[in-house]
Each structure stands twice: as structure tokens, then as C-alpha cells.
Amino acid sequence: MELYLIRHAIAEDEAPSGDDSQRALTEKGAKKMRQIAKALRTLGAKFDLILSSPYVRAKETAEILADVFKIKKKLEFSDHLAPMADPNPLIAEINEKYSVDSIALVGHEPYLSRLVSMLVAEGAAVDITFKKGGVCRLSTDDLHHTRSATLEWLLSPGVLVEIANK
Asked: How many angstroms separate the first and last alpha carbons of the chain?
């Protein structure tokens, strides 16, 4: 299985309501995410499913990804991808609900770094910089809660935009 961990794109600093879950992407963030999605397509990424945090900024990021890949019907949401959620229930949810070879997980920091640490280093902290719009690809033969994945690559949004513009 291939796991693509994608941090939401650039979002507004504060939602008009003050509710963090309602922060939307900025115009610049949405434009950059479209370029990042095109770069992922150029790199040969394919998704059987896009699973996103229900927070607005992640939802909008996932919708752009689904639009570029023309898989809007394969977009689902999980509370297990919320910023302060525990990654363990997410692994159980994926194994129990979905039979996929490739999945995009759209979420937040520090959640995504914790998930990488759990899957690559048995929970030992892996010091990575996961910028907004950054993408990490992991591969695994058997997804479970302990070290089970290999870090294939981690690309910054700047590198992905360069790939999209070539």
C-alpha cells in the first residue's frame, strides 16, 4: 500500500467565527494546492481513496486534489485526522473500512509528523519539516500500529510547484 500524507495548503490565520476548524484556504493556498496536485499527477501518484480531516482547510485541500485527479466520488472524511486526534484509530479505520492500494491522507501538523514517526520509527520522534502543502509518501506491505512503513520521499510545496511548472 502507498500512503500519501498531505498537509493542508495555506489557510487564513483565523476564521471569522474564531473556530479553528472553520479556517478556509487562502486564494494563494488554493492556487498553490492545485499546482501541487498537478505535480503529484506528474510524479505518477494515483489514489484509490482520499481521506481527509473534516476541518475546512483540509477539506478544501482534499477537494482540490480530488478535482485534479478526477476522483470526487472517492473523497471521504474522518474525525481521526483532526489536528489533536490519536493516529492509532486511523490505522484501524483504514484496515477495517477500506480495501485500497493507494490512499491520500489530508491533515494537519503535528498530527502528520506523529503518524510518520509511528509508522516509520515505532513512535520515536522523527524530526521532519512538514510545510503546508507538503507531501510525504510511505509504502507498506502490512499497515499496522508499529513500525510498518518505509519513508519513500518527503517533498516541500516549493519543489512540487517547480515540478508542476516544468
From this structure: 28
